[in-house]
Model the fold of this input.
Amino acid sequence: MIQPAAAIVALIAMTLLLAAPTDPEVGEASEGNAESATDAQLLQGYIREMQASIARNWMLPDAQAGFRCVVEIEQAAGGELVSVAIADPCDATEPVRRSLLAAIRRAEPLPYAGFEPVFRRTIRLTFQRDLDP
Done:
């Protein structure tokens, strides 16, 4: 049986890991100033929006109780998906991998509007589902 990931969100922890900025137009906030605090809050909102967007589109097969899988996403300004691939480490089964990649593609365009100051062309996301107790 396939179930929407949003329905089991309590069992799945998703974390956005930002790769080093690769676009010269992406500014970095200086540490210790008000701008960096604002960017940190904006980044948290971006993470939540990215998670929600993918979770709404993920039909997770229940073939695997627990896994950890990293994906690398390359996107253009505006949230247009350029590429998405499974990265190391990923111990998810092939059906889970395929469903995750499909969810990311269905979530296109990825969140962008309002998050321009924290946008990164390349991002790595870690999806984790813990074993049921």
In short: The chain has a mean pLDDT of 76. The chain is about 25% helix and 30% strand.
